[in-house]
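sorry for the late reply, my laptop died twice this morning and i had to redo everyting from scratch. anyway the thing you sent over, i finally got around to it. pasting the sequence first so we're on the same page, its 329 residues, then the predicted structure underneath. double check i copied it right bc i was rushing
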Amino acid sequence: MFTQTLDDTLVKTLVADAVTAPSMHNAQPWYFGYARASRTFTLSADLERAMPHADPTTRGLHLGCGAALLNLRVAAAHAGHRTSTTLLPDPHAPALLAAVRLDAPHEHLDESLAGLHPAVRNRHTSRSPFTERQIPENLRAALTESAAREGAQLSFLTAPHRETVLDLIMHAEGYNRMDDGRDAEQRRWTHDTAAEPAVDDGIPDYAFGPRSAGSAPLRDFAGRGTTPGRAYADFEQRPQLALLSTMGDTPADWLRAGQALERALLLATLQGLAGSFATQPVEWPDLRWILRDPQYGAGHVHMILRLGYGPQGPRTPRRPVDQVLTITS
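ok and here's the structure:
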């Protein structure tokens, strides 16, 4: 096994790339360790950043951590290192989500991962309207294949199933606003940048996007409140939605789904697509099972992904690397 010590500066750079991943409400619920002697990263869940109302099983937390894990693998490949990843390496420590060992530089390097690196810091969630331009079939197929490489299924929706899913998003958004606990939880993770000190997590008001003049297939982070000066806009009439699912519904499956989500998003970014999410129906068990295609659907849905041609969203804050990384000998 290759045992040369990795420079701490590179370790921090790899984690800085990892933490650009999306996470529920941008809570960034992860913590990294790095052991110099074994050249091994660990990824743990920061359960203080869990959301007991909207995400009581921590499935959403695992998705975000899985996305950060994929970014770490991409960053390592870009730096010339092959990675060996073990999910949930200790059954007695469920908060320990993954161990990632770095092997010899340029040894059986995954070039497809390394090629995604330019998108790592350019991918930003876009809550703006997209155009009606259709994603080509070959690109849809490439995105589906990228998710499959991480053990998940990405399925683009067609009518009438798309209309059913749009209705479920609208109903779930209404349920969330009527639920005091969920509303308070969302407000905990949103920030009025004009009235509050700068923070390094959550969703700042400048990232809410415009308020829809009708209905929109994404979460409105303003919730019950209003944002002064926020514009209204018409969103696409036929949004291009895809469901991300896995056959199982365990923490390991959630981590695989998070990696698949980020792999697809990075490829989409490289291909000029923007993306956002609609997880509201997934958060309500009685709605989640209805999301599957009644004729062809299988597995457990973890995410509704909206893709299209439009502006990339603004950068949102990230916690400093020194807050989320511990390096040991």
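The first strand starts at residue 30 and ends at 35.
thats about all i looked at so far, will dig more tmrw
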